[in-house]
Amino acid sequence: xxxxxxxxxxxxxxxxxxxxxxxxxxxxxxxxxxxxxxxxxxxxxxxxxxxxxxxxxxxxxxxxxxxxxxxxxxxxxxxxxxxxxxxxxxxxxxxxxxxxxxxxxxxxx
Length: 109
Description:
It is a single chain. By secondary structure, this protein is an alpha+beta fold. It has one domain (2-102). The chain contains 2 helices and 4 strands; from the N terminus they run αββαββ. The protein has a 4-stranded antiparallel beta sheet with strand order 2-1-3-4.
Protein backbone atom coordinates (compact mmCIF):
# COMPACT_ATOMS: atom_id res chain seq x y z
CA UNK A 1 0.00 0.00 0.00
CA UNK A 2 2.77 2.44 0.96
CA UNK A 3 4.75 1.58 -2.19
CA UNK A 4 1.65 2.18 -4.35
CA UNK A 5 1.08 5.56 -2.72
CA UNK A 6 4.72 6.54 -3.31
CA UNK A 7 4.49 5.58 -6.98
CA UNK A 8 1.28 7.57 -7.37
CA UNK A 9 2.80 10.59 -5.58
CA UNK A 10 5.88 10.55 -7.83
CA UNK A 11 3.70 10.18 -10.91
CA UNK A 12 1.52 13.11 -9.82
CA UNK A 13 4.54 15.29 -9.15
CA UNK A 14 5.92 14.54 -12.61
CA UNK A 15 2.60 15.23 -14.33
CA UNK A 16 2.04 18.40 -12.31
CA UNK A 17 5.55 19.62 -12.96
CA UNK A 18 5.37 19.04 -16.70
CA UNK A 19 1.96 20.65 -16.95
CA UNK A 20 2.96 23.69 -14.86
CA UNK A 21 5.85 24.33 -17.17
CA UNK A 22 3.88 23.86 -20.38
CA UNK A 23 0.72 25.68 -19.34
CA UNK A 24 2.23 28.75 -17.69
CA UNK A 25 5.10 29.42 -20.03
CA UNK A 26 7.16 30.00 -16.90
CA UNK A 27 9.84 27.91 -15.30
CA UNK A 28 8.85 28.51 -11.67
CA UNK A 29 6.08 29.61 -9.37
CA UNK A 30 8.43 31.80 -7.29
CA UNK A 31 7.25 30.91 -3.82
CA UNK A 32 3.56 30.68 -4.67
CA UNK A 33 0.92 27.96 -4.35
CA UNK A 34 -1.06 26.69 -7.34
CA UNK A 35 -3.72 24.00 -7.65
CA UNK A 36 -4.24 21.52 -10.42
CA UNK A 37 -7.74 20.05 -10.55
CA UNK A 38 -8.29 16.64 -12.18
CA UNK A 39 -11.91 16.30 -13.39
CA UNK A 40 -13.14 12.75 -12.79
CA UNK A 41 -9.75 12.04 -11.14
CA UNK A 42 -8.21 11.41 -14.55
CA UNK A 43 -4.44 12.00 -14.70
CA UNK A 44 -4.15 11.10 -18.35
CA UNK A 45 -6.78 13.67 -19.41
CA UNK A 46 -4.40 16.62 -19.56
CA UNK A 47 -6.69 18.57 -21.87
CA UNK A 48 -9.26 18.69 -19.04
CA UNK A 49 -6.97 19.82 -16.21
CA UNK A 50 -8.00 23.03 -14.47
CA UNK A 51 -5.34 25.37 -13.09
CA UNK A 52 -5.85 27.86 -10.32
CA UNK A 53 -4.29 31.29 -10.16
CA UNK A 54 -1.26 31.62 -7.89
CA UNK A 55 -1.80 32.03 -4.15
CA UNK A 56 0.33 33.21 -1.24
CA UNK A 57 -0.85 30.46 1.13
CA UNK A 58 -1.81 26.80 1.04
CA UNK A 59 -5.17 27.65 2.63
CA UNK A 60 -6.07 30.02 -0.23
CA UNK A 61 -5.16 27.29 -2.72
CA UNK A 62 -7.16 24.66 -0.82
CA UNK A 63 -10.16 27.02 -0.61
CA UNK A 64 -10.03 27.45 -4.41
CA UNK A 65 -10.09 23.65 -4.82
CA UNK A 66 -13.06 23.26 -2.45
CA UNK A 67 -14.97 26.02 -4.26
CA UNK A 68 -14.31 24.31 -7.60
CA UNK A 69 -15.35 20.93 -6.15
CA UNK A 70 -18.58 22.36 -4.75
CA UNK A 71 -19.42 23.89 -8.14
CA UNK A 72 -18.67 20.66 -10.02
CA UNK A 73 -20.30 18.35 -7.44
CA UNK A 74 -18.44 15.28 -8.75
CA UNK A 75 -17.14 12.91 -6.07
CA UNK A 76 -14.63 11.39 -8.50
CA UNK A 77 -12.71 14.65 -8.99
CA UNK A 78 -9.22 14.98 -7.51
CA UNK A 79 -6.93 17.94 -6.92
CA UNK A 80 -3.67 18.98 -5.34
CA UNK A 81 -1.94 22.21 -4.39
CA UNK A 82 1.80 22.61 -4.93
CA UNK A 83 4.29 25.16 -3.63
CA UNK A 84 7.35 26.77 -5.19
CA UNK A 85 7.73 24.65 -8.30
CA UNK A 86 10.89 25.02 -10.36
CA UNK A 87 12.21 23.45 -13.52
CA UNK A 88 14.99 20.98 -12.73
CA UNK A 89 17.34 20.58 -15.67
CA UNK A 90 19.25 17.77 -13.92
CA UNK A 91 16.02 15.72 -14.05
CA UNK A 92 15.35 16.35 -17.73
CA UNK A 93 13.56 19.67 -17.31
CA UNK A 94 10.62 18.45 -15.21
CA UNK A 95 9.02 20.66 -12.60
CA UNK A 96 9.91 19.87 -9.00
CA UNK A 97 7.87 21.36 -6.18
CA UNK A 98 8.98 21.97 -2.60
CA UNK A 99 5.63 20.76 -1.30
CA UNK A 100 2.49 19.15 -2.69
CA UNK A 101 -0.76 18.76 -0.75
CA UNK A 102 -3.38 16.25 -1.87
CA UNK A 103 -6.70 18.08 -1.44
CA UNK A 104 -9.51 15.90 -2.81
CA UNK A 105 -8.10 12.41 -2.74
CA UNK A 106 -6.17 10.10 -4.98
CA UNK A 107 -6.70 10.52 -8.71
CA UNK A 108 -7.06 7.44 -10.87
CA UNK A 109 -4.17 6.30 -13.04
